[in-house]
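chain and backbone:
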Amino acid sequence: MEEKILLDLLYQSMQDSAREARLSLGRPSSSATREEALQQVAMLKAAKDRASRVQK
């Protein structure tokens, strides 16, 4: 159990460090839910399909 807690704490620390690095570079932190990510993928795929049909 202690090993899992240690790994969780290390993972959280790495996430915090990455967030701080992004902020220091002027990039806001972004987090999307799985549903939002799937919606974005579907939207991009639809746009790609439309673009390929227009080019033909």
In short: Helices lie at 2-24, 34-55. The chain is about 80% helix and 0% strand. The two ends are 59 Å apart (CA to CA). The mean pLDDT is 85.
